[in-house]
Amino acid sequence: MNFSIVKRFLIIGLLLAGPIVLISCSDVFDQPSGLVEASNIEVPPLEGQDLTSFLNGNGVMMQAFYWDVEPRFDWWDLIADKTDEWAAAGIDRIWLPPASKGQSGGFSMGYDPSDYYDLGEYFQHGTTETRFGSREELDNLIARAHENNIEVVADIVMGHNSGGGPEFNPYRGKETFTLFNETNGNASGLFNRSFEDYHPNSIHNNDEEALFFEEQDLCHLQDNVQNWLWKFDNSVAKYYKNTVGFDGWRFDYVKSFSPEFVSAWVDEVGGWSVGEFFDGNANLVREWVAAAGVNAFDFPCLFQMRDAFERNDLSILQNGDMLWKTNPGDAVTFVANHDTDREPVIEEEYKLFAYAFILTHPGYPTLFYLDYENEEFKEKLNQLILINRTIATGDLEVLYSDGDEYIASRSGDGDNPGLVIYINRNGLELSREVTTHWAGQELHDYIGGITTGLSTDDSGTVLLKAPANGYAVWSIK
Question: What's an example of a GO molecular-function annotation for this chain (predicted)?
Fold first, then answer.
């Protein structure tokens, strides 16, 4: 007989034979001693509290696009119509794709910027509207978001350009596409550029790594570049903030230029900011945060979650190095984005586990549009957002972790009770005895996977449960 079947019969037999003893399934599989004394009393199903009485000020950002969004030319209108629903769910920021005209015109996702001031107003690169719509539709989207108290984050690509006209470049000894003016990829006539604004030039050979559009890698030491990107009264930064109405910034591919230029931009115009330092080394990300003075996406957390769920080794969640563990106020956590989802870092079958992790842990969580708009995920994500906005607060303590279990506590604050999250990657419902910060309390699973309430003893000890291949978020009834 298959050994796993034998184990299941053993478990069933023990349960039938010993009504006073409860079994931890994880103990049966993994530990030399399989029995634990029951330290809680099961109580009938209970209604949980109205969590909205514990609103803690947490917010959640929505990445409001994916790669090659459809329908083309209608994206701004589509997102505008979702802002009411998103605000009601607890979204407090939306991150938009680069809004300016790119070399690919109506097919561009904005990461090949040509004219920073063409937000769907000038006919160039074969189109007037951007892939996402017209300037008027962008203005409407921002107004609708602001009516719903949602900040709008602009994606800023200031490392490289694309779509200029040809000119002889003496520093490369050949023709390069580095001429940007009214007739060459810059119909607005603002921030005209030439080969002196790119690398190499008369003052600078190169800055950081330049993996994209190397010949059009902007030199941020040039006065013309600094003036037009952030210093002038009508610079890109000030135009986007003061005229267009953007509230904050997501800086693309920040490895391609010095963090001092991110710092200079934010010092000049302010606004909530986050950088894409695409690296799994948490120490390198911390160094960039310290130098730039803004938040960073927690790529180390992303890669550690991938390893934990794919290897079925949830101890990685406890032991892996992540930005939020040392810099919770600087860490923007996420499960997928427009780049990582094309060849998924975290496969769809693990995504809800990952969202349960980031939405109950420190850091500022980001939702990916395609995940949230997945009807199989939406209701579950809405509940996790509510938990994040309410009882996901206080100090974090990992109570237990092993291959298929992870249990962590948030201590709460004042009248806020906090929570305990129990992630179970086993194919069976599991139980685990832990000591919580709740003494003598009835508990409720605010996810709803476990319908029977539990209660702690006078020391806070309880035999917690988590559903098979699922997760529970426990707090007081």
Answer: alpha-amylase activity
Taking only the tens place, the pLDDT of each residue in 427-455 is 999 999 999 999 999 999 999 999 999 99
Active-site residue, from 252, 298, 371, 433: 252
Pick the catalytic residue: 27, 115, 121, 276? 276
Structure tokens at 301: 């957390």
pLDDT of residue 208: 80
Has residue 384 got a pLDDT over 90?
yes
CA within 13 Å, CB half, 244: 29
For residue range 118-140, list pLDDT tens digits in order. 999 999 999 999 999 999 999 99
Task: State the Cα–Cα distance between residues 146 and 148, nearest whole angstrom.
Answer: 5
Sign of the dihedral through C-alpha 289, 292, 297, 302: negative
* Tokens at 223, concatenated: 């006065």
Domain shared by 13 and 32, yes or no: yes
Q: Which amino acid is at 386?
A: L
State whether 304 and 411 are in the same domain.
no
Give the separation between CA 216 and CA 214, rounded to whole angstroms: 5
CATH number, domain containing residue 463: 2.60.40.1180
Question: For the whole model, what pTM was predicted?
Answer: 0.90
Whether 276 is a known active-site residue: answer: yes
Domain count, the chain: 2
Kindly report the average pLDDT of the chain as a whole number: 91
Q: What single-letter amino acid sits at 130?
A: T
Helix-helix angle 299-310:348-358, to 10 degrees:
130
| pLDDT of 351 strictly over 60 | yes
Same structural domain, 140 and 93: yes
